[in-house]
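PROTEIN DESIGN WORKSHEET
SECTION A - STRUCTURE
LENGTH: 431
TOKENS:
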């Protein structure tokens, strides 16, 4: 008589007293399949959209049951007994499970006290806004941080960047008033879009020639440089999308000081470069589910500091362009916490902006509106870059003359997209 598999399994359980435990790979397959089936939307830039996407109560319960089951089952596996790749999946699953359960607790509370209209005036103005902000901050940065810690980090970065700008100002020999007036001289601006393209092409040629100074050889996918036509992106001097670097010039002169740092950030060795490398990496099914902006935007901001190694920033004013925009990013960090967590008014935020940034009052209210609309997202640039700089300093101190900048960059690039805390662990592990 042929015994059917289902009956054979039952007999084995009766004889042995236990059910054969699934392998860790089977567990990860279950997680991937279950996660995809839930159709959880990616974290939206707009908190209003996030709240509008909250599913009905029965769907929230279904998600909670799934992640609580995953958390319980994961305890069966000893991480030390897993391969390196499995350990990475283990940590990713644990991280995503915890973050999703935190989100679901907030969503459950939101559903019990649902608002007819969602205030668009910042997270501080909605029920449980401070709890939502703590969640957004940890999610965007993919790190276990607090608003108070990040606020202090932002203040320190404001001072650091201001120091670089003041150093350039002193070397210019100009008084403060004359210096900032000088930055508006027409010699710093390009009117013809075709000339802007030439400047970016020249920067590209110089950087490609000097990549070997600080990077190992990696395949770089062909890159196009085009003038942007999407007016929804007008607030940015440029952006990157699908192997195209776009520079934005809409009926206004283009600032020459933006050319070098912007190409580095958006193109090479920034987003286009890292994206090209990510595409060639073999990633697990778990890793393929997620994308972590804390590292990706941090990388783009970090590599801007390598301009001189890459042959650009040939004048103090070229380098100044990097610090001018980095000061905007730095000021946005405390401003983001202030508006969304501490309850600052727009006027308090504007006062903070004017106290710390000269010559850019024209974009102040736009940036204030941005951090209220997209809470915590703008902090990814500074936090990620700050972490990478910190790792570099730690390794330089630990390894001394043996420190190899190319190897350091490879340690990061070869990991693909992971939460910042996991990249830190891998990069700083002694091989």
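SECTION B - SEQUENCE
RESIDUE ASSIGNMENT:
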């Amino acid at each position: 008589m042929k015994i059917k598999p289902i009956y054979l399994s039952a007999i084995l359980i009766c004889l042995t007293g236990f059910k054969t435990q699934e392998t860790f790979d089977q567990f990860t397959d279950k997680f991937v399949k279950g996660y995809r089936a839930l159709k959880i939307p990616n974290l939206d830039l707009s908190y209003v959209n996030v709240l509008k996407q909250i599913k009905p109560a029965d769907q929230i319960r279904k998600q909670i049951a799934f992640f609580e089951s995953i958390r319980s089952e994961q305890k069966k596996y000893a991480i030390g007994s897993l391969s390196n790749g499995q350990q990475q999946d283990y940590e990713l699953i644990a991280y995503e499970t915890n973050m999703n359960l935190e989100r679901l607790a907030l969503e459950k509370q939101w559903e019990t006290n649902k608002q007819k209209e969602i205030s668009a005036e910042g997270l501080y103005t909605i029920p449980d806004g401070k709890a939502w902000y703590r969640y957004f901050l940890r999610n965007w940065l993919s790190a276990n941080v607090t608003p108070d810690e990040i606020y202090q980090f932002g203040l320190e970065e404001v001072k650091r960047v201001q120091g670089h700008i003041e150093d350039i100002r002193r070397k210019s020999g100009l008084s403060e008033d004359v210096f900032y007036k000088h930055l508006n001289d027409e010699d710093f601006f390009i009117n013809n879009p075709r000339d802007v393209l030439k400047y970016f092409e020249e920067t590209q040629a110089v950087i490609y020639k000097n990549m070997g100074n600080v990077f190992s050889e990696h395949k770089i996918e062909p890159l196009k440089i085009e003038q942007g036509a999407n007016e929804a992106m007008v607030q940015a001097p440029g952006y990157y999308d699908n192997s195209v670097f776009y520079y934005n010039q809409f009926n206004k002169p283009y600032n020459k000081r933006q050319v070098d740092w912007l190409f580095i950030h958006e193109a090479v060795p920034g987003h286009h470069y890292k994206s090209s490398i990510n595409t060639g990496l073999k990633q697990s099914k778990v890793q393929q589910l997620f994308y972590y902006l804390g590292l990706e935007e941090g990388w783009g901001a970090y590599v801007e500091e390598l301009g001189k190694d890459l042959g650009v920033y040939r004048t103090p004013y070229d380098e100044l362009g990097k610090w001018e925009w980095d000061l905007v990013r730095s000021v946005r960090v405390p401003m983001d916490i202030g508006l969304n967590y501490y309850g600052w008014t727009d006027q308090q935020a504007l006062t903070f902006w004017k106290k710390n940034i000269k010559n850019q009052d024209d974009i102040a209210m736009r940036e204030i509106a941005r951090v209220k609309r997209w809470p915590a997202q703008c902090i990814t640039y500074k936090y990620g870059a700050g972490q990478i700089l910190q790792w570099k300093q730690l390794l330089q101190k630990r390894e001394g003359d043996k420190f190899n900048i190319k190897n350091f960059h490879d340690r990061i690039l070869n990991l693909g997209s992971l939460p910042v805390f996991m990249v830190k662990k891998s990069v700083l592990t002694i091989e």
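SECTION C - NOTES
The first helix runs from residue 5 to 16.
The chain is about 60% helix and 5% strand.
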